[in-house]
Amino acid sequence: MGTLTTWPDSSASIEDAIDARYGSYTSQCRHVAVLQFHPDMVALIEDERWDEAGIGERQPDGSYVLRIPYWEPRDLLPEILRLGPKVRVLEPQELRAAVVAHLANALQSYDAS
Questions:
Q1: CA 102 – CA 40 distance, rounded (Å)
Q2: Is 50 exceeded by the pLDDT of residue 56?
Q3: Taking Cα atoms as reference points, which of 106, 109, 57 lies closest to residue 77?
Q4: pTM of the model as a whole
């Protein structure tokens, strides 16, 4: 039998309920990712809705650097992987290592066939 979901009491805000369930949306994130996007992606990234605490800035080389809070690497990993070579994790090393490990595992599965 499945686990029952416990709902916060009625005095809790919807933001508190979301924060309690989804790490990447919480206002109490543990880390800040620094992501550099390829110049081709700037318009898309500026239009995309990121965490409200995210801070982005165009760079002299045309790229875009976004600083975004997150709870765990798995919170941002799918977003980073879907953009492939159009994004690079500059910081922190833990997130960068998680991306590299995931890509290495994917590559290895292709090499094995």
A1: 24
A2: yes
A3: 106
A4: 0.70
